[in-house]
Every structure is written in C-alpha cells, then in structure tokens.
Amino acid sequence: MNKDGELDRRLDALIDSGTTLLGLPVAPEWRAAIRLHLAISLEHARAVAEFALPDEIDPAPVFSA
Amino acid sequence: MTAEDWAWASARDIAAAVARGSRAGAIVEAALDRIARLNPLLNAFTAVTAERARARAASVDAAIAAGKPAGPLAGVPFAVKNLVDIAGLPTLAGSRINRDRPPAAVDATLVTRLEAAGAVLVGALNMGEYAYDFTGENSHDGPARNPHDTSRMTGGSSGGSGGAVAGGLVPLALGSDTNGSIRVPASFCGTFGLKPTYGRLSRAGSFPFVSSLDHLGPLARSAADLALAYDAMQGPDPRDPVCAERPVEPVLERLAEGAAGLRIACAGGYFRQGASPEALAALDAAAAALGAEREIELPEAARARSAAYVITTAEGAALHLQRLRERAADFDPDVRDRLIAGALVPAVSVVQAQKFRRWYREAVLRLFDDVDAILAPATPFVAPPIGQKTMQLAGEEVPLRPNIGLYTQPISFIGLPAVTVPAPTAGGLPIGIQIIAAPWREDVALRVAVALEQAGAARAPRPALQS
Prior knowledge:
The structure holds two protein chains of two kinds. Chain A is built from two helices and no strands. By secondary structure, chain A is an all-alpha fold. Chain B has helices at residues 3-8, 11-20, 24-42, 50-65, 109-116, 159-166, 183-189, 223-233, 277-290, 301-327, 333-343, 347-367, 409-412, 442-454, and strands spanning 45-48, 77-81, 120-125, 145-146, 149-153, 172-177, 192-195, 215-220, 264-267, 294-296, 373-377, 390-393, 396-399, 418-423, 431-437. In chain B, helix 8 runs antiparallel to helix 14 (442-454), helix 10 (301-327) packs across helix 11 and helix 10 packs antiparallel against helix 12. The chains are: A mainly alpha, B alpha/beta. At the A-B interface, helix 1 and helix 2 of A face helix 10, helix 11 and helix 12 of B.
C-alpha cells in the first residue's frame, strides 16, 4: 500500500483536512508520529470492518431511558 | 517491628497488628519516612499527604483506644494514582494541563471507602498522561522507575502504583485500567493487581479516559490484600452511573477454598503469539502448578484488541478535543500525537467496534460454560528500559507504546475480571500472569491467585533498594 509513499500521502491528506476542519494544530515536527499512529488506528479499524456482523446486532453499550 | 518490617508487611498483617495494639501513627510515620528516602529514586509519588495521613492515623488510634472496633484496613497506608480525587489537591491525571484545575472538593468514593475501613491515605501517584500509556513514562513528572531495576519502565499507566507497592513504599495502591493499566505495571513491577468486572467498583471522583472501558482497582503484594481492599470498596454508588446495583459479595472469606474444584485452562493461539520465552515459561509454570492442562482459544482475540484500540483512541480524542485545540503544546508529546490521530478515526469505525464488542462478549462468555478461569500472559515480556520506543513482535519491529497491552486489551474490552499475579523468572525481572474469570467472579480469580501463591508459583519479589 505504501508504494512510493502513496499511503503516507493519503494519510497526510486526511491529517491536513481533518485537523483543519476540527481546528486542531499540527506542528511540522508532530506529523510523522501522528501519521504513524493514524496508520495503526486505521489498520485496526480495517480489521474490525472485515468481520461480518448481522445487521440486527446492537452495539455493546446499551442506553437505558 | 522495625520500620523495614512494616515496609514489607502485608495490609492484612498491618491491620491485625493495629487491632492488637500497634499504633497506626508509628506505621504511617515509617511509611512517610520510607517515601521520603526512596521516592527520589523511584519517582512513584507526585504528592505526599503527610499532614492528612498523620491526622487520620491519630484518629484510627484514638478510635481503637476508645474501644471501637478496628476496621479491616486499620492503619494500612495506601496511595492512589493521581487521577483519583483527593480533597484539596488538583487531580492531575498525569498532565500539566490539569494543574490549572481547582483542587478536588471531595475525595473519590473509593478513597472514602478505604478510609472508612481504617486505611490511611499517604499520597498521589505518578502515571502516564491521561492514562493513555503502557510505559509509566511522563514528560512532566519524569518516568516512574521500576524498583527491580530503576533503569527500566514500571509499565503504565498506573506506573507509580506499581512502583510504590513493589518498592515497599505502601502495601496497597489504587490504579485504573482501561486497556491494561493495572495489569501491565503489576506485571513489570512484580505485584498483584485486580481489574474487577466492569461496573463493579465506583469510578466516582476519578478523571475519565474511555467511559465504557474505564475500571479502578487495587495493586498489592498478595492476593489476600487485593481481596481485603476489594471487599472494602464494593457496593453501588449513585455518583457513578456505571457502578452496578449489586450488593457487596465479600471474597476474602472464600480465599481458603483455593482452586479446588475449579476448571482452569490456558489461553492459546493469540495469547502465545509474540510472547517472550519468559512470559511463556511463567505461563506454563503456573498452568503446571494448577494442573491446568487444557488450552482454549478466545475467538477473534486479535480483532477484539483492534476494536478496543479504535474505541480508545476515538473516545480519548473526543474527551480531549478542546484541550488539543487550545493547549496542544502542553500535552506529553507521546500522548498528544496519538490523540490527534484518534480524532481522525471515522465514526463508522467506532460504531462497528462497539457492535463487534457485543458479538465478542457473547462468544467469550460461552467459554465459561466449560471453564471457570483462564490463564494468559499479562505482558509479552519483562519491563523494557525507560525510553525504548520499539519492540519485537513475532519477528517484526513495531512501536512499543501501543503494543504492550497486547494480552490485556481483549480481556478488559468485555469487562472480565482479571487478577495479575507475579511469577518468578530465571532472569530476575518479574512478569505477570493474568487469571481471567467470568463477570462478577472476582472470587474465582482470587482463589486461583491464592492457589498459585501456596504452590510457590506466584510471589511479589522484594527488590534490593538503597536510598
């Protein structure tokens, strides 16, 4: 995926647009670590998304009125 | 008893001695003296509440002198991770930013309950910033240091809790555990630690991290001391909406039952992959001591860890979003960069993770039809050197900080109670084994812990410390 830095470019695009929209500062020297942690988090998210769940299953936390 | 004897006495023995006439004041003074001598080395405490402790100890002594019954923790010094409210102190949660908060108006519920049982609060303990940490490092207060080798990590985020108990500064400490933050420092520091069932102990008056994963619990140097503290802290609390409406179910009186009749298995598959030889040897020795020959697989444990990871990073980012906007430079850099990344995780991923969590919970609970307790490593390896940034996992170099909780996250993800016990290792540094039980069966996990102690397969080692 990170062929010729393609993954890094996509992550940087998400970091740039996401932090701008959320109003979060990113100093240049923070970027490499943010990119690393974002890549790890999205890899975990991908692993979760790959698991087929029934439409009817409720999320674990249950609201009580 | 000398001051050194008191330093290594169990909470149970201290309370018994105070009930027989030893003075709580002298015991607390010995603890304060030891903290003053050794904290410069261990960096476990961020505040020492000496005046409060002396006053509290005096009131314990006065009550006993007046013929009132001594509490089950009479005169036992204890300290709390600095995300737990102590009236009169700002609740730091390991951060610089929280130093600007007003002091807590009242104690956390668990502090009140421990003191009601006669225990004496002596201070607040170092921790990883905002509990997003498995190392015990902290850029504001400096790293908590492992009493068995002060160049090594305590583990975190309850790093000061592990260091203070392992170093003999207190026999009892409170920590918090969202993904492993009691069980990891217990493993690296060689203490016992209890992460109770989610919702079992009140979190009222503690600074949160991830609401649906946050637990508080004790660290101590024996299973009986965990049980003693746990019994004193149980019970519903209207201040914490997550705290269960369950009556107190005392476990101390059940410890004598040991592991007799319990069906115990080892977690295989995921829980053996990536484990160091020390971790596997400790696990195998514990299994052998218990005659636990069966191996079972927690289904989809790796995915469970992934889901816990996603929920944690997104919820943590949500909690701190405004602070990240306004004071990003005041965060510990290692925490800040993870939180900013967490803010960019899509909401759909979090919802999927919470749905998977229900599936996983139901699948794992079915295992308890056939077993009562499951053994697993607490950490993949012994305490790494402070400052280490990467680790070897299954032959691959990966970042250290996000991966220490490999074996703890799939357990806390569904709120199962787990006791970490320290296992002797050939290399000298301790490593912990998790004893995992079905929800609300802390008694089972603690009975197995006692059985391991009695078999010589679990013991909190005493470090050679010199001030």
